[in-house]
Amino acid sequence: MQLKINVTEFILLGLTQDPVQKKIVFITFLFFYLGTLSGNLVIIVTIKTSWALRSPMYFFLFYLSLSDTCLSTSAAPRMIVDALLIKNTISFSECIIQVFSLHFFGCLEIFILILMAVDRYVAICKPLHYMTIMSQWVCGVLVVAAWVGSCVHSLTQIFLALNLPFCGPNVIDHYFCDLEPLLNLACSDTYVVNLLLVSNSGAICTVSFVILMCSYAVILHSLRNHSAEGRRKALSTCISHIIVVILFFGPCIFIYTRPATTFPMDKMIAVFYTIGTPLLNPLIYTMRNAEVKNAMRKLLEKKSISNNKK
């Protein structure tokens, strides 16, 4: 049965309603967003232009930076603009698009992190077969599968949202549209939808986190048989990945694995995985990765030389 939708727009309360605090939010998150864009775009350009970064690890890092950029763009620009407005409204269709984009790129990031863990496992535990197992064709197929899986997940979220009847009120106590706050506005019993949400988003987050932690535990355990230099290099890479995994999955698990109950801290926790992690990822990967830093240095030197010739 098709349910009639009476609400055509929603009001987003944002992070705060205080005029002074809204100015602080505008300045702070504009700075964060610009940092996210510049940091991830530098990694994307560096990987695409450097021959030294042609291994599968950097192939997946390219897509991680791309998903970070898109994930942050799905939420941050609107929050920044809304901080300057008195009344922040978003149409029903725009809200649904935001739900789709946030879940698509968030899920894509999860799958890319899993692929990066698989890559590290093969590189460290099966080094002799690494280039055969992680061939360019295999990596391409894995990334396509990640995109398809993310699309299926996001379409499921949209299907759940479109089947919710909204008759009012239309105030969302959040800075972006998501299924959790939308459930609180639906004028029908949302118990089944909430179960589907937890079994979809919650299961993806929890199972993926467990898989990642177990895989890195196996990787770290296997390092005991490597040389001191090999252990140091592998530890540097794996620790970077583990930090990213904890920063991203911690907030996601807290939000998506519990019933549709809104807590005051939810908005600030959501900031971690929509804006915080995309901002920190470039810093984590560049500060702990000598190859990326060297490639960036060469790229800057080439740019400087070409500018001097002009």
User: How many domains comprise the coordinates?
Assistant: 1
Write down the secondary-structure element order.
EHHEHHHEHHHHH
The number of helices is: 10
| Helix percentage range | over 70%
In spatial order, strands of the major sheet run 2-1-3
End-to-end CA span? 67 Å
Ranges with pLDDT <50 over ≥5 residues? none
The number of strands is: 3
Main sheet: strands, sense, barrel: 3 strands, mixed
By CATH, the architecture is named Up-down Bundle
Task: Describe the protein's architecture and organization.
This protein is mostly helical and 310 residues long. The protein has one domain: Up-down Bundle (Rhopdopsin 7-helix transmembrane proteins). 75% of the residues lie in helices and 3% in strands. A three-stranded mixed β-sheet has the order 2-1-3. Helix 2 packs antiparallel against helix 9. The radius of gyration is 21 Å and the shape is globular. The model has no long low-confidence stretch (mean pLDDT 86).
Ordered list of secondary-structure elements with their pairings:
Blueprint: E1 9-12, H1 19-49, H2 56-82, E2 89-91, H3 92-125, H4 130-133, H5 136-162, E3 171-172, H6 179-183, H7 191-222, H8 228-256, H9 266-287, H10 290-309
Parallel strand pairs: 1-3
Antiparallel strand pairs: 1-2
What's this entry about, in short?
With 310 residues, the protein is mostly helical. It has helices at 19-49, 56-82, 92-125, 130-133, 136-162, 179-183, 191-222, 228-256, 266-287, 290-309; strands spanning 9-12, 89-91, 171-172.
Any descriptors?
single chain; 310 residues; mainly alpha; Rhopdopsin 7-helix transmembrane proteins; three-stranded mixed beta sheet
